[in-house]
Amino acid sequence: MAGRALTPVDLADPALFARGIPHDAFAAVRATPGLMWNAIGGDPDDGFWAVTRHADVVEVSRDTTTYSSAVGHIQIYDIDADALEARASMIDMDPPIHTRLRRLVSSAFTPRHVQGYLESIRRRVAACLDAVVAAGGGDWVELVAKPIPIGVICELMGVPEADHDAMIELSDHLVAGTSSAPLDPGAYGNTTELRLLPFNSPAAHGINQYALALGERRRRQPADDLVTKLIEAEIDGERLSHSEFANFFRLMIFAGNETTRTAIGHLALHQRDFAAEFDRVRADRSLVESAVEEVIRYSSPILYFRRTVTRDTVLAGTAVAAGEKVVMWYAAANFDEAVFADPLRFDPSRPTPPPNVAFGGGGAHFCLGASLARLELAVLLEEMLARDLHLDVVGEPEYVDSNFVNGIEHLEVTVR
Amino acid sequence: MSDQVQLVRVVVDQERCIGGAQCELLAPDVFTVDDAAMSSVIEPGLLPRGLADKVVDRCPGRAISVVDAADAEGAS
Lengths: 416, 76
What we know:
The structure holds 2 protein chains of 2 kinds. Chain A is built from 16 helices and 12 strands. Chain A has helices at 23-31, 54-62, 81-87, 97-102, 111-114, 118-134, 140-145, 147-157, 164-175, 203-220, 226-232, 242-273, 275-283, 288-299, 330-333, 370-386; strands at 36-40, 43-51, 67-68, 137-139, 234-235, 238-239, 304-309, 313-315, 318-320, 325-329, 391-399, 408-415. In chain A, the strands form 4 sheets. Chain A has a 5-stranded mixed beta sheet. A 3-stranded antiparallel beta sheet of chain A has the order 4-12-11. Chain A has a two-stranded antiparallel sheet with strand order 5-6. In chain A, helix 9 packs across helix 12 (242-273) and helix 14 crosses helix 16 (370-386). The longest helix of chain A is centred in the middle third of the chain and has 32 residues, at 242-273. The mean pLDDT of chain A is 94. Chain B is built from 2 helices and 5 strands, in the order βαβββαβ. In chain B, the strands form 2 sheets. A 3-stranded antiparallel beta sheet of chain B has the order 4-1-5. A two-stranded antiparallel ribbon of chain B has the order 2-3. Chain B is globular, with a radius of gyration of 12 Å. The chains are: A alpha+beta, B alpha+beta. Chain A binds chain B through residues 62, 95-96, 98-99, 102-103, 106-107, 109-113, 355, 360, 362-366, 371, and chain B through 15-22, 24-25, 33, 35-38, 57-58, 60-62.
């Protein structure tokens, strides 16, 4: 390990993200030529390469042969082979099997197809904004950021409205697995060893049980939804197994829920911190599309994904060896001054390309729900502008204790 | 289309297509994505070089490639 440049701080420490993205730490790593090694727990042999520049994130994202999602784990910590197998969904797989699983649902998420959800999204957004206006404010996360994305993804999946709150709670407890706090292994009736569960969280058991019950209902009574699609899907003439189906369901609920929620939470902060920039959008609605991209870039809801190197190679001029971990810090690459001029400025007219990497740097794992997320945020922004809604943030946001999601737990606002 | 613009021919590798449909978004006259989210090229599959490069770059599945330069007079 001699000769490796070490990161100035442990980037995997959840405490580092307690007040949002640690821009200074990431800037220091980006500015250092080559790659820096992030040792874990003071052990120089255990750690990962910190990938923080935009170009390097794109390179890793696109080369699924050299940088595998199926080997090791896509979270920083390693898990045993049986655990990997038990919890695997397509996000933990490489092409070609990843491709075949993804294609089971991808038609529901194309840019053209998601337009079909427009009116439903607008109704959900309007109901949330009307509620927050009527109350004069409240917790922006509870009233707006949570219900919109979970409502939309549950509608696609076929989860009844009455169960949306339960999905939010279960999804939140999944994320709790990336915090430093210990979890109750018996929660949600869980009897599975935590190490076999995604995020080591008992909530995964709860979601999987829910998925299997809903799947059984759809088997008897099919509907026009993604659960029915997954139940009926065949790969090489074989249906998905129970665990394949449940893991797929869990991935969709989590990914459709936590990410857009995070962006909506940050949108309120952006309005506080960059009021003059938002006045430009109020004056020129043609900026909504680029403003949404800037909200996504600036909030970087997923902080990182990890890959594992499958063959000795060179990345950013640094030799990396087979078996080593590389961690793509999207939250760093999205503020790469080599790509984004004045990156800490929130610029609603920032040109694209270059695209930000909040949805990933391209390649097979590019966010399935990107078009849906953009649509939800665009409708929200449009409806806020239509109501001439101004938010005042009360106090400071409470961030989710996690090194994986840039989530906001609570954010009190008043409206005028 | 100006005869200054170089046209190229594009193809889709359906083994790699993940149904992201970015191609259809960028070049709806040349790509069509079916109900199973599989992309295919509407023949003759000719695009200006700049747009073709953009489509190739944006394809998440790395499924689209430029196969050859076409005769610019071959397209209207």
